[in-house]
Amino acid sequence: MKVAAIDIGTNSMRLLMTEYVDGKFFNRQKYINTTRIGQDVDKRGFISKEAIKRNVNALDEFAKIAENGNCEFVFAMGTSALRDSKNKDEFLREAYLKTGINVEIISGDDEANLGFLGVLQGIDEEGDILVLDIGGGSTEFIVGNKKEGIKFLQSENVGALRMTEKFLKSDPVDDCEFRELEKYINDTIKITLDNIKKFNIKRAVGIGGTITSLSAISQGLEVYSMDKIHNSSLSSKKIDDILQNLKKLNVEEKKKIKGLQPKRADIITAGAKILNIIIKELKVEDIIISEFDNLEGLICQKLKIMS
């Protein structure tokens, strides 16, 4: 059966089209559009009219791709920015009227669950793993394994777009602003990291745009490749080296970095810093990158419910 899943994230909207047979994924195709539904939501509490229009149009484009791809089902979810916005119902209404798609706004815990479920489809590890999903508005932390499922999960409101808007006003990044960002992230996620330290983590796995971008930068990819990103790894030192370089560059210079989508250039430094802090605090030597994430998780969950 051919199915599609759409994730309306704070920074970008993503589409997965795939064939799903006997619990396995074949011929996966992913599309991304940097739609920024979460722009200024943290400050104003509302999605702007322009952001609603931009995202409804992007959703319509994805719906047409799925239709042309003969997908039997199209599942769609909204995450951090839609959770937080006071006018989320306006977006949901406009989206349904234009596309006929019911977008489901999921909780941070549900987002973490789906991310973990998706990662399990593409990884071979029996022991406890830590899954990190650094998004535009939030970061999800999940600990668990294939046999016992999830043992711990937490969603924290530190994301690449949210932290950039809150702290990084200068270009290039100002040292004082950067220290404030670092302190805020440390203070916000300290309890979560203390809880994670109690587990015997065998492997750390990263999903989401920040981490896949850092892998693409590390590999100097001219063209993004799911195959080259999936199961690639980033050492703690490599993450630190990339971050130190990003701090020196202005946005226009970052746009020229091989492997980095130009539309992510303004928020990648904050995203890299979130990962840098987590990796150092947990004393993780390297992190594996997964191209199986909450989109695969959403399809698994929905089709299981329907069967």
UniProtKB/TrEMBL annotation:
<dbReference type="InterPro" id="IPR003695">
    <property type="entry name" value="Ppx_GppA_N"/>
</dbReference>
<dbReference type="GO" id="GO:0016462">
    <property type="term" value="F:pyrophosphatase activity"/>
</dbReference>
<feature type="domain" description="Ppx/GppA phosphatase N-terminal">
    <location>
        <begin position="31"/>
        <end position="303"/>
    </location>
</feature>
<protein>
    <submittedName>
        <fullName>Exopolyphosphatase / guanosine-5'-triphosphate,3'-diphosphate pyrophosphatase</fullName>
    </submittedName>
</protein>
<comment type="similarity">
    <text>Belongs to the GppA/Ppx family.</text>
</comment>
<dbReference type="InterPro" id="IPR050273">
    <property type="entry name" value="GppA/Ppx_hydrolase"/>
</dbReference>
<dbReference type="InterPro" id="IPR043129">
    <property type="entry name" value="ATPase_NBD"/>
</dbReference>
<dbReference type="Pfam" id="PF02541">
    <property type="entry name" value="Ppx-GppA"/>
</dbReference>
